[in-house]
Amino acid sequence: MSLITLSQDFASGGRAICNHVAKELNLTVYDDERLKEKALEIGIQQKNLPAIEEKSPGFFDRLLHKTPEIYLDILQGVVYSVAEQGDGIIFGHGSQILLKDFECALHIRVFAPKKRRVENAMKKRGVDLAHAEKIIQSKDQQLNGFFKYAFGKEYSDPSLYDLIINTDKISREQAAGLIIDLARSEEIKACSLTAMNTMRCLALEKKIHAKMLRANINPDMVFIKVPEIGRVALSGIANDEDEKKLIIKTVKDSEGVCQVEENLVLSHT
Description:
Elements (H helix, E strand, L loop, with lengths): L2 E6 L5 H12 L3 E2 L1 H10 L17 H8 L1 H18 L2 E4 L3 H4 L6 E7 L2 H12 L3 H23 L11 E4 L5 H13 L1 H4 L3 H22 L7 E7 L2 E8 L2 H12 L6 E8 L3
Parallel strand pairs: 1-3, 1-4, 2-3, 4-5, 7-8
Antiparallel strand pairs: 6-7
């Protein structure tokens, strides 16, 4: 069992390292495209996400700009769903923060000095120095902006990672080897049943929350807790009896829900 989150500074070689590790450990890489597929697997309907059928990369980025509140719910639900499986490599998307307290995950950051990344961008993109510098600056701003908006955190915060690798000094092969050795270690592979159950409960909670948003139910007035797998505690305020029925039906119809404990009150009472 190996669950890894791998984050990179643009043009630092993180994707190549990720692919190497995935091949060696026989793990699925959950990048933007695979996370999009996972969203469909856990019940996100295409009609609710007009851009989800597009094949070009950056689906989650586009969704963030269109409907950020739905984006964050869907992203968390998808990441937690991957985590409850217990293995895979989640590439970027703030997974190191979403799974920060999940003891079963190994969090990796790959970076390189700006000069090295500019050189890499020039080679990969076939652009001149000035253009490469603009690309790096733009990518860094987007990454930092996303983290501050979504999580109120600094991407570079070392406390978010178990291992930080500088590819200016460590080759991609060596970096992959370090991650592979760590992932195979007994300390990292060990994962308590309690931790896995907690992740399953979080995954179900986020899936229900996202489903309620898509049903135009105000999530600020409804509170969802999953104290154990399959059991949902529902409380809060509904505007009227029809909305109350809709909320209860939405929760009960969610995949994985076996029992609903409802304590909703009407706003006029």
